Amino acid sequence: DGQRLPRGLSYLIPNIDPYLLERIDVVRGSNSVLHGQINPGGMVNQITKRAHFSPQREVAIKVGTQAQRFVGFDINQPLGSETDATAAMRLGGLYRSSTSESGIDAKRYAIAPSFTWQPSSQTEFTLHALAQRDPDGGDYNALPAYGTLFNNPAGNIARSTFLGDQQFERFDRRTHLLGYRLSHSWNEHVSLQHNLLYTHARSSFRNTSVRNYLGGTQWGRIATASDEKLRGLNGDVQLRLRFHTGPVRHTVNVGLDYQHTRAERLIGNGTAAPINTRNPRASDGLTR
To answer: Coil, helix or strand for 186?
Structure first.
């Protein structure tokens, strides 16, 4: 929504589910700097669903391979008669799950309410929020090239092989967003827009992955643990002026952008027990 989405120091990267997005804009080149402190090479702008003044009902159900399950809903309702309503509410939510080829689950559920108030044709205020939880992040492990892409005479590795520790494996992420947008137009030449977004997120990551080749079908491994949290506040004020000089039309955008992010991380790495790819164990006794 034109605001920077902050991220943590390692694995804590907030991710908005596509079902809760209205569209995705890819802004290339110097135009991206109109959205604040953005790299002039370009930006990807995720536009979330907002309350509007047309009734809307949607329920989506999807199933697929790898135990994919999805249920989502999107309800928008003007408050009052549709012709003269000055407020509207929208509520979207979802649940999705799947299982990787190696047997590791991925789950997500989220809810996103929004409220729009339009006291006049010149003024609009929208309050929006998001609460999203990923209790299971899926399989973050990789298989080595030797034994998959390249033949290992001692024994190759099946694609469904999991070389981590299932009792230790975890990726739990929680994301909360709260923000608003206020816009007002005095006339066709002068308008003002103010945005504010607060972000709070936490994650807990545990992973055991292949580190080095020991010979035959034996591989050394490393265990990683990372607990992170972040808080971010982004705001901007934009004053837009439109005018003519003869046949030429001009638009001048003047604004102030503020960003503050605090990220914390507790991380550790250590050597884990080696694993035999010919007969990998589901667990090597690590604890979360």
So the answer is: coil
Q: How many CA atoms lie within 13 A of 152 on its CB side?
A: 20
**32 — phi, psi (to 5°)?**
-65, -25
Whole-number pLDDT of residue 287 = 52
Distance separating alpha carbons of residues 277 and 158, to the nearest angstrom? 9
How far, in Å, CA of 152 to CA of 166, rounded? 25
Overall residue count recorded for the chain in this entry: 288
CB of 253 closer than 8 Å to CB of 237: no
pLDDT higher than threshold 80 for residue 145: yes
Pick from 131, 138, 133: nearest CA to 108: 133
C-alpha distances (whole Å) from 75 to each of 59, 63, 89, 111 are 9, 22, 8, 12
**Bridge pairing between strands 56-64 and 68-79:** antiparallel
CA 184/CA 239 separation, integer angstroms = 10
CA dist., res. 71 & res. 67, Å (int): 13
Does residue 132 contact residue 186 with C-beta atoms inside 8 Å?
Answer: no
Pairing of strands 190-215, 21-28: unpaired
Q: What's the pLDDT score for residue 109?
A: 96
Which phi and psi (to 5°) does residue 13 adopt? -125, 105
| Residue carrying structure tokens 């992420």 | 173
pLDDT band at 35 (very low <50, low <70, confident <90, very high): low
For the stretch 110-140, pLDDT in tens is 999 999 999 998 999 999 999 999 999 988 8
Show the tokens assigned to 39. Answer: 């790299």
CB 111 within 8 A of CB 131: yes
